[in-house]
Amino acid sequence: MTPTIAFMLCLCLLPLLPSQLRVELVFSGRPMRSTVEAAAVREVRRIWSVYGVDVRAVAPEQAHGSPVTLSVTLLDGDSGVVHTLGTTRFVDGQPRPMIVMYPDAVASLLSSEYLVIRECVRWAQACQDALAGRVLGRALAHELGHYLLRMPGHSASGLMRAQPPAAALVEEESRPFQLAAENARQFAAMRRQPCR
Fold this sequence. Notes:
It contains seven helices and five strands. By secondary structure, it is α/β, with parallel strands linked by helices. It is globular.
């Protein structure tokens, strides 16, 4: 069964399943500090739980019990596109179950003197990890939105906007990372969609 067919089948069966959609993230590629990964996953979970999505990070050998399993690859360097923290690939209008994230782009964003002085002391590792996790988590939540909404483009506001301000990615306030009303309605409708 192709990933696209499996994904569509998953969405069709959602009304018959418990109210939450479980999404498993399998991290690979560049190693990440466990505190950064934990903070990133917490942020993704917090953002998507409002919409009935239960996001979990799992080891590769445990990634078989969820209707949606996505590979999240951490690459060295950056995407070559300014302000791109992550990417989701589409083929023939359908998202592939693979997300690529660029931790170096996150680190570059956090190295801004304004952001560092404003948020925490440069040498406080716990603070750096929390901020890196928050930014990475918000960028990952955005990429997950591309997959779940089957949306290659962007919205004018909310989680799916193309380039949120750097300060918004760092600030504790997370309202700018809710789905815009039209995206939330679209996702709710997709989950109610009957099988064809």
